[in-house]
Amino acid sequence: METENQTPPPSNAKMFGIIIIVLIVILVIIFGVDFGGDSTNTKAPAAGTEQADAPTVAGNKWKEGKDLFKSNCAACHNPKADGTGPALLGAKARWAAAGEHQGKTGEQWLHAWVKNYNEPVEAGYKYAIDMANSRPSAMNSFPYLKDEEIDQIFTYIDSSFAAVKQ
Ligand code: HEC
Questions:
Q1: What's the Rg (C-alpha) of the chain?
Q2: Which residues sit opposite 104 in a β-bridge?
Q3: What's the confidence (pLDDT) of residue 14?
């Protein structure tokens, strides 16, 4: 009877075991939180760097423009410095400012120029004639580039380099 109702007090060994388990749980919580913090910290700057590189225009267009520029134009053109070809920063605005000719806007003549620089020259577009005469070397033709792709190239150049223009 006595033995049945009595719950024996925990022995020292049992208490010690409970303390160890509690300590392990605390350590797991501390290290768990710590590891969680570490992985968040290592991921966050990487994502931030990518975003910092991207300009405010739609990311895909910018990326496509960058790839198209690197693979087709960068051999002769630098956005900010003259090389074999002139610096291309602001080129789109220069063609737009050069104005209409034969019912086409300056931007349309720019598309024509990139596809085949002879076309606006032969059409008598003054800006293109002056440009073609400005250097000894001639521009390549890119008949396979679409208007949209040409725009992407200039979107990339103007949006990525305008901020650092002096
Ligand atoms: C083989 C070298 C070469 C390549 C490649 C080249 N260009 Fe040119 N580009 C020139 C030269 C040289 C001129 C100067 C005009 C001339 O002498 O015919 C020029 C002029 C231009 C101009 C007129 C610049 C202005 O200030 O109005 C534009 C726009 C242009 N290029 C765009 C492009 C684009 C876009 C590409 C890539 C799709 C490209 N170029 C690839 C050599 C090149």
A1: 33
A2: 101
A3: 75
Q: Which atom of ligand 1 is nearest to the CA of 127?
A: 27
For the chain, the average pLDDT equals: 79
Predicted local distance difference test score (pLDDT) of residue 67: 96
Q: Whose CA is nearest to atom 7 of ligand 1?
A: 139
pTM of the full predicted structure? 0.71
133 C-beta closer than 6 A to ligand 1: no
Q: From 66, 67, 77, give the residue whose CB has the most ligand 1 atoms within 8 Å, as the site to mutate.
A: 77
**In the chain, where the domains are located:** 2-53, 59-164
Give yes or no for residue 132 CB within 6 A of ligand 1: yes
Contact present, 79 and 161 (Cβ < 8 Å)? yes
Average pLDDT estimate for 145-151? 97
pLDDT tens by residue, 105-120: 999 999 999 999 999 9
CATH superfamily, domain 59-164, is Cytochrome c-like domain (1.10.760.10)
Residue 83 neighbours by CB distance under 10 Å: 12
